[in-house]
Specification:
By secondary structure, the protein is mainly alpha-helical. The protein contains 9 helices and no strands. The longest helix is centred in the C-terminal third of the chain and has 20 residues.
């Protein structure tokens, strides 16, 4: 869950960065009492999701994983929109963080098989105790498909971020996530090179820069 939070340097707005830093510190410190009410409500949902993941409890159904994503990752997205005082954009931010979470579940599949929905494992005759490639490929593909569908739904929303910086960050996340999903289509997520490389991120930065210039 901690890995889903934007890196400090990913939030150039000092006010937004400070709000997210305060939220992270409260979550990791375990004391949410000093947070403002809207932040505290989101923090409680994120904490519940983190505790669920940390407990090692097995996810039985895809609907259970979806609920977990709505509590944790979606709440992080809402907190980011809130930090930019752009809560109108929260649905898009929530969707992007849910998609990123589903991709991370694929990456964590071999070492945290409890996060893989039991119904999907059963459907594809995969033993949770022996997650391996390529046996788990159809399960991973199912999760990646849901991540892609989540991004598509976000793009279909008739919402435009009021904050240019938030809009840029979400556009970067979209490009990264779409490219990561494509990278994982026929690749073992535990293999070398499964993650996006520095070159990938450089190309994404260039595309984003060209897009901004074209619309300015």
């Amino acid at each position: 869950m901690a890995d889903l939070f934007p890196a400090h340097n990913a939030l150039p707005d000092p006010t937004a960065a400070s709000k997210i830093a305060v939220l992270r510190a409260a979550l990791f410190g375990g004391d949410l009492s000093d947070l403002e009410a809207p932040q505290e409500a989101l923090a409680q949902r994120i904490d519940q999701a983190a505790q669920k993941i940390g407990s090692g409890a097995e996810i039985a159904r895809i609907s259970e994983l979806t609920t977990l994503a709505q509590f944790g990752p979606a709440s992080i997205g809402a907190a980011v929109a809130q930090a930019y005082d752009d809560e109108h954009s929260a649905p898009i931010a929530e969707a992007m963080f849910v998609a990123r979470f589903l991709v991370e579940v694929v990456f964590a599949g071999a070492r945290s098989p409890n996060l893989l929905p039991g119904e999907m494992l059963k459907q594809h005759r995969v033993n949770r105790a022996e997650i391996s490639w390529p046996a788990a490929k159809p399960v991973y593909q199912g999760l990646l498909t849901r991540a892609r569908e989540t991004i598509n739904r976000a793009e279909a929303m008739d919402i435009r971020s009021a904050s240019p910086e938030l809009r840029k960050m979400l556009a970067r996340y979209r490009m990264q996530t779409v490219r990561q999903i494509a990278r994982l289509e026929d690749r073992d997520p535990a293999s070398p090179g499964a993650r996006l490389t520095r070159f990938d991120n450089l190309m994404i930065s260039l595309r984003l820069l060209l897009r901004i210039r074209a619309t300015s």
